[in-house]
Specification:
Blueprint: H1 7-26, H2 29-43, H3 53-56, E1 61-62, H4 78-100, H5 106-113, H6 117-142, H7 147-167, H8 171-185, H9 187-199, H10 203-233, H11 239-260, H12 266-279, E2 284-285, H13 295-302, H14 305-312, H15 314-343, H16 349-354, H17 357-384, H18 390-394, H19 396-401, H20 404-414, H21 422-426, H22 429-451, H23 455-500, H24 503-516, H25 519-527
């Protein structure tokens, strides 16, 4: 018997249900939940067909993570998140250790290659030039291709370029490999803010991760001169051994990262999920796929995003200036401490490198203080039921500790005379470590909170500018200290730090108003990203 026209809707509906069952059998539980959520949202739109068109092929459904989806990085277990953070922190420690490693064996390199001290200074400067260039690519590319590939590729290159430093037969090649090493080493600094924002939705927990991350930045930097100083003085080791040891340690870190790191960037994860679901027959699309991902767009939009932030975002501009100056002082110390403790007090490179350790002690103390403040804020929110603003969550400890930096510089200046016990001069590093670390913990967290999924670009351009300043400071450090003297050279920096000290207070007072005028912050608020 011929099928009547009235049978057609029933046949179509039966076929649609069959396709739904076929698709559902090939999707994971998380994918099915995400699909159901997307269909429900589609059904709420005017002119929809109650969300049933995904199976008939009439209309694409935009895919999102469903609440509680196990594949959403925000829903990973606490142990898995901590493992990912640990892998990034280990990579960062290798990176920052490498940044200062050459200051401890400057004399050995000068003797082997017959070059002046200015040429040896270039090993630090060109490494930091790599720090300048690297985030311009790593940060925006991580927001386009994902965090995992960028971190793994850069970590592998870092190991290879470190081996190149160990084998360099001449000074020009050593400087060239140091630049490439810095280029690869900056990836965890550029990408970490975005990665932490990917996996930690709770700002309190994210703040703790950033605190540990910042602390490892300082600890890695101050260990470099001491280790390389002792190694270069040992006859059976030498300065090349330092690079070999770093290459081995970085290789172990790479293997660990490759084993535990998974993609965390949610737009890329949704795009991969949509591709799998389309292969199973579902008519879905990820939001990321609706954007123009052509090479022209990558070059004109993605790669220029950090620069647009630097031009149009007052928050980014102010943080770049302030953090650049503070970061430059840290790398200036790697040239100033050999003058203060080596030239004036006659210490060998190894013991002179140990004089930096109080900076690490200050870092540890202020990291604990920031963690305690986070606990206080969390308890206050739980008690009152009112969430505090970004500024009050991140900046009060920094408002106090920022003035530790000028205190440290004045202390260092006027205890540098050889007649003063070296212990008194050495302890000037304690308040510097407190101020430096608090500024970075407070403002890196604040930048991450403000720019969320675009935090990698914001923190990336901050890394570029502060590395540019840090690359220049060692070039004039010795000349400034020789012409002005240790007391007035350090005091000059102290007066500049004192002038910039109130900036955290300004953000605490006017930060919300600045965010309300930020095109990036307002766009993120509207899109709830």
């Amino acid at each position: 018997m011929a099928r009547t026209s009235s049978d057609a809707p029933e046949t179509t509906a039966r076929a649609a249900r069959g396709r739904r069952r076929t698709v559902s059998r090939t999707l994971s539980d998380g994918e099915q939940a995400a699909l159901r959520a997307a269909v429900e949202r589609s059904a709420e739109k005017p002119g929809s067909d109650d969300g049933r068109s995904w199976a008939t092929g009439d209309e694409r459904v935009v895919l999102e993570f469903a609440p509680g989806d196990p594949d959403d990085p925000r829903n990973w277990s606490a142990a898995r998140k901590r493992t990912v953070v640990a892998s990034v922190i280990l990579l960062l420690f290798s990176s920052t250790f490498a940044s200062s490693i050459s200051t401890g064996f400057a004399g050995a390199v000068m003797a082997e290659f017959g070059v002046p001290d200015v040429a040896v200074t270039l090993m630090v400067t060109f490494f930091l030039v790599g720090y300048v260039v690297g985030p311009l690519a790593w940060a925006p590319l991580s927001e386009h291709f994902g965090r995992q590939y960028v971190l793994l590729v850069s970590a592998g290159l870092f190991v290879l370029f470190t081996i190149g430093c160990a084998l360099a037969p001449s000074m020009p090649l050593l400087v060239a490999f140091r630049f490439l090493q810095g280029l690869a080493a900056t990836s965890p600094i550029a990408v970490s803010g975005g990665l932490f924002s990917d996996i930690y939705q709770d700002p309190t927990v994210r703040g703790r991760a950033v605190a540990f991350f910042t602390g490892s930045t300082v600890i890695g930097s101050i260990f470099g001169p001491a280790v390389s100083g002792y190694a270069s003085s040992a006859p059976h080791l030498g300065w090349r051994w330092t690079f070999w040891a770093l290459a081995i340690a970085s290789g172990v870190c790479y293997v660990f990262m490759a084993a535990v790191l998974r993609e965390t960037f949610r737009p890329v994860l949704l795009m991969r999920r949509a591709a799998r679901m389309r292969a199973a027959g579902a008519n879905v699309v990820a939001p990321f796929e609706l954007e123009d991902r052509s090479l022209a767009t990558v070059c004109s939009v993605v790669l220029t995003r950090p620069f647009r932030m630097l031009v149009h975002e007052p928050i980014v501009i102010a943080l770049c200036v302030y953090m650049g100056f503070i970061y430059g002082i840290l790398y200036l110390f790697f040239s100033a401490y050999p003058i203060i403790f080596g030239d004036l007090r006659g210490m060998a490179p190894g013991p002179a490198g140990l004089m930096l350790f109080p900076i690490g002690a200050g870092t540890t103390l202020v990291t604990v203080a920031h963690l305690a403040y986070d606990v206080y804020v969390a308890r206050r929110e739980a008690r009152t039921g009112v969430r505090v603003s970004m500024e009050r969550r991140r900046l009060p400890p920094t408002c106090v500790c920022a003035f530790c930096v000028p205190l440290s510089l004045f202390w260092l200046a006027w205890t540098s005379d050889p007649a003063v016990p070296f212990q008194a001069c050495m302890m000037a590093g304690l308040p510097f470590g407190m101020g430096f670390t608090s500024i970075f913990i407070g403002f890196l967290n604040y930048g991450t909170d403000c720019y969320r999924i675009y935090a990698a670009s914001a923190l990336g351009i901050m890394s570029v500018t502060r590395s540019l300043v840090a690359a220049m400071f060692p070039l004039f450090a010795r000349g400034m200290y020789e012409r002005l003297g240790v007391q007035w050279a350090s005091s000059l920096l102290g007066f500049l730090a004192l002038a910039l000290g109130p900036l955290p207070v300004v953000f605490l007072w006017k930060g919300q108003a600045l965010r309300s005028r930020s095109r990036f912050c307002m766009a993120l608020e509207k899109q709830d990203l």
